[in-house]
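Marked as duplicate of an earlier ticket. Keeping the data here for the record.
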Amino acid sequence: MITDLVLLSGGLATRLRPISHSIPKSLIDINGTPFIEYQLKLLKEQGIENIVICVGYLGEQIEDLIGDGNKFGLNIRYSYDGDRLLGTAGAIKKALPYLPETFFIMYGDSYLPINFEEVSKLFTTSDKPALMTVIKNDNQWDKSNVIFSENNVIKYDKVNIVPEMNFIDYGLGIVTKTCFNCVGDGEVYDLANIYRDLAEGGKLLGFETEQRFYEVGSFDGIEEFKKIITKK
């Protein structure tokens, strides 16, 4: 079981303005609790032990609240983008010294009630350097951006959409450090481009889930998550 994870929490959350002018997306109030606390509880339940939170805009607020993760039973470290936001892959590249060879990736606005151990098992039986979890979407929650077949992501592209795409990136990935060899130190780079190139090279494993994902990157997503988390 892979027990290390990168949590990407450095974005500007422009869709949540004006709220996000004063707090990062991870600290959005959900029924009286900051969203990130729901994430950390879920990750602990799924067997994650060590987390590196990649932070940028207002990231100090996250560190001030969460600290070293001890109160959640987790070991948490922080990697700051610095003077400019590095993009998702650029942020991970900077965090690599804190990470083992293989680790999970999750976005800071995602709540993913999926079995992490099953995802980890599939990856460890493969010789591929990366894995993307996917869900059958048919443009239901957002534009589908994945062609998936027999545990392989055949094509992934968020820009050049083709009719054959009926899956979408679920939001949980597994990568090895070698996936970031193409990113220079301090370079602004998007994780989506790495996934796209891996898929084109036949190097991106896929794990299909039927379990809904939830997100707080939009006001509609926040309201939906408030409802489902109340029922738990």
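See parent ticket for discussion. The first strand starts at residue 4 and ends at 9.
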